[in-house]
């Protein structure tokens, strides 16, 4: 019966959409495994695209997300974010802290500062790292407050992330 078959297909489509699949109506495409990935700063929506995979630096280490990931909310660290778009192309960014939230089929990365790797000057990032390392060496064995130490370590992490992102963008 054609009506029963149509109803069964409709039910299948609804179940797959609930699990994060998207239906592509182009010929021979069918369902694709993707989720929406957004990178948002206070002043701009840097990215909002369909993605098949994303990896980012969380406060406790590297974290990867694929379609169907469980809901979570975590604090971001300073580091590189790689987003693999549905077509296979990857985009690389550097984020400086913030929060990541996976809710259903949407990953949102909220951050104060996001830089796309294609706009990062590798030589300038190398100079930033050298300056941050020099500041650490200049302190020697002198006691340092926790905030001052955290600031120096953050500058080092940010410079290293910029260098890594610039190298990924060139590859």
Features:
171 residues, alpha+beta, five-stranded mixed β-barrel, 9 strands
Q: How do the strands and helices of this protein lay out in sequence?
A:
Layout (H helix, E strand, L loop, with lengths): L1 H17 L2 E4 L5 E4 L1 E6 L4 E14 L2 E6 L5 E14 L4 E14 L2 E5 L3 E3 L5 H18 L6 H25 L1
Helix pairs in contact: 2-3
Model description:
The chain has three helices and nine strands. The chain is an alpha+beta fold. Strand 4 and strand 5 (61-66) form a beta hairpin. Helix 2 packs antiparallel against helix 3. The chain is elongated and about 80 Å long. The mean pLDDT is 85.
Q: Give the uncertain stretches in residue-range form.
A: none
The overall strand count is: 9
Query: What average pLDDT do the residues reach?
Result: 85
Fraction of residues in β-strands: 35-45%
For the sheet with most strands, the description reads: 5 strands, mixed, barrel
Q: Please give the radius of gyration in angstroms.
A: 21 Å
Structural class determined from secondary elements: alpha+beta
Number of helices: 3
Q: What is the N-to-C order of secondary-structure elements (H for helix, E for strand)?
A: HEEEEEEEEEHH
So what's the overall shape?
elongated
Beginning-to-end CA distance, first to last residue = 54 Å
């Amino acid at each position: 019966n054609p009506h029963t078959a149509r109803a069964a297909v409709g039910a299948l489509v609804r179940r797959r959409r609930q699990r994060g699949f998207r239906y592509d109506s182009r010929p021979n495409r069918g369902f694709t495994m993707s989720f929406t990935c957004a990178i948002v700063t206070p002043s701009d929506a840097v990215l909002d695209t369909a993605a098949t995979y994303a990896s980012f630096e969380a406060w406790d280490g590297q974290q990867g997300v694929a379609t169907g990931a469980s809901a979570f909310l975590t604090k971001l660290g300073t580091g590189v974010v790689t987003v693999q778009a549905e077509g296979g192309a990857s985009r690389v960014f550097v984020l400086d802290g913030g929060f990541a939230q996976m809710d259903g089929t949407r990953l949102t990365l909220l951050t104060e500062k996001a830089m796309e790797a294609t706009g990062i000057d590798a030589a300038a990032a190398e100079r930033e790292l050298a300056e941050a390392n020099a500041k650490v060496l200049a302190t020697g064995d002198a006691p340092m407050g926790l905030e001052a130490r955290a600031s120096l370590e953050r500058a080092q992490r940010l410079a290293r992330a910029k260098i890594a992102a610039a190298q990924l963008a060139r590859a």
